[in-house]
Predict the structure.
Amino acid sequence: MEKFTLNEIKIAVINKDLKKLEELSRMTPAFSSENEAKELIYFINEATKILEEEKRKLSLEMKEIKKLKNFYNQNSSCAFDYQG
């Protein structure tokens, strides 16, 4: 299994790089000391927060899209039935 370094996750978290965070989530962290392991845990937790926030935002957007779709479906038939 591929491994990622502390610097890789730091950069991804700082830049809020969702694509890179997703990639790193499929990898194993590599560390050489207890301090590095603690830092990795911190940045993994930060990455989790970023991904959870993105998930929350997407969920809200999906709800809005559903509302708009329902509104459109309810009103589309009568909007174009004008016989003038």
Notes: The chain has one domain: 3-75. The longest helix spans residues 34-79. The chain has three helices and two strands.
